[in-house]
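Researcher: Next entry in the queue.
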Amino acid sequence: MQHILLANSVSYATPSGGQVLTGLDMALHPGELAWVRGPSGGGKSTLLRLLTRLISPDSGRIALSGQPIEAIPPASLRRQVALVAQTPVMASGTVEHNLTLSFSLRAASGASPPSADALAQWLERLSLTGVKLSDQAQTLSVGQKQRVALARSLIMEPKVLLLDEPVSALDQDSRLVIERMAGEYREREGRAVIMVSHIEPNPDAGPVRVYNLENGKLQEQA
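Model: Structure for this entry, 222 residues:
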């Protein structure tokens, strides 16, 4: 099966010389949900930043659909590989403004934002009961903001969805909604998901490939 995202012999050290990742290999195929676990400081967030080219590896190769990511224009790469950060960032303004914010960026050049009805359906799918498109995003709870941030990325239909500890500070209901949506998204044609989390995957998320990242080394859990 053709991989959608490939990391081969990737190493990275901080500017001060601290080795974070060493010879990391990872192959992600369409339809897969990869669950990356490990202790704090083990390199999980660094891995996601490398995959989105927010930072560059010291050695090794990262490719998206067979193309080295450094050959992909950053705006195009960020649309194809979307990162939902651990701490959801909401811009000033309404929920609708935040959901359509990506369409004002160069990465979405030529794309039309969804209609208000379509956006309202996203809120419903993510169990954002009671949240209106006209609500001020800054007034939402942490769990609601995380789900709006997830919807904002899903609307852009990236090839690979990266989730950085998205459920660490959420209640059980919010966690289950996000894990369910991640499981559903990877089932779409040509899509895959990487979930970074310190907790075990929920069985409801469906088939999962679990990895442990510790001391800069990534190993798939049998």
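Model: Helices lie at 44-51, 74-80, 95-99, 116-125, 142-155, 172-185.
Researcher: Noted, moving on.
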